[in-house]
Specification:
about 200 residues, alpha/beta, Aconitase, domain 4, 4-stranded parallel sheet, 8 helices, about 35% helix, about 15% strand
Length: about 200
């Protein structure tokens, strides 16, 4: 997983509440176990028309939001089923940070495990950033994870809270596998002693 330290980019405004994971990516895409390639399916049901053409009114089909790295949205983002594919689709599109008043619990956990920073802020602060995002290319946001601040285009800094362990994992690019591999020396030592004490387990 890529390290997340600082990020500056275009923020796409999505002023919707209760955006569930089926809206983020439809269930038909759940057959794949690959984490890559799902960007085009992000928000498929509202991003495309029935004939498969782009809906020009949807924010991610407009410039400069086609290259958005931030998403500013409403409360309870990521509710619904626990599909990790929703996070894969966001990451595949290029979204590395989502800002909202709150998130569904399982989606929140999945995002951090896949290198996406989720920032919870009071509604009043989200409203400010939503206004910034609506200004397009001239209103780029910056997030500094180490300092835990989002910087608005006018220079105002908004502090956010984050769990220390999740922060550590993002800063160091550690997913669950990488965390386990940090203990590989201890694991090897345990396996060695276990093999000596109970060799029949390794027949």
């Amino acid at each position: 997983m890529d390290k997340f330290t600082t990020l500056t980019g275009v923020a796409a405004p999505l002023p919707m509440i209760n955006v569930d994971t089926d809206k983020i990516i439809p269930a038909k895409w759940l057959k794949t176990i690959k984490r890559t390639g799902l960007g085009p399916a992000l928000f498929e049901a509202i991003r495309y028309r029935p004939d498969g053409s782009e809906d020009s009114g949807f924010v991610l089909n407009k410039e400069p939001y086609r290259k958005a790295e931030f998403l500013v949205t409403g409360e309870n983002f990521g509710c619904g089923s626990s599909r990790e594919h929703a996070v894969w689709a966001l990451h595949g599109f290029g979204i590395r940070c989502v800002i909202a008043p709150d998130f569904a619990d399982i989606f929140y956990s999945n995002a951090f495990k896949n290198g996406i920073l989720l920032i919870k802020l009071p509604q009043a602060e989200v409203d400010k950033l939503m206004e910034d995002a609506e200004k397009g290319e001239n209103a780029r946001l910056t997030v500094d994870l180490e300092r835990q601040v989002v910087t608005r285009p006018d220079g105002e800094e908004i502090h956010f809270e984050i769990d220390a362990f999740r922060k550590h994992c993002l800063l160091n690019g550690l997913d669950d596998i990488a965390l386990t591999l940090e203990k590989k020396t201890d694991i090897a030592a345990f396996e060695g002693s276990q093999k000596s004490a109970t060799p029949w387990l390794y027949l």
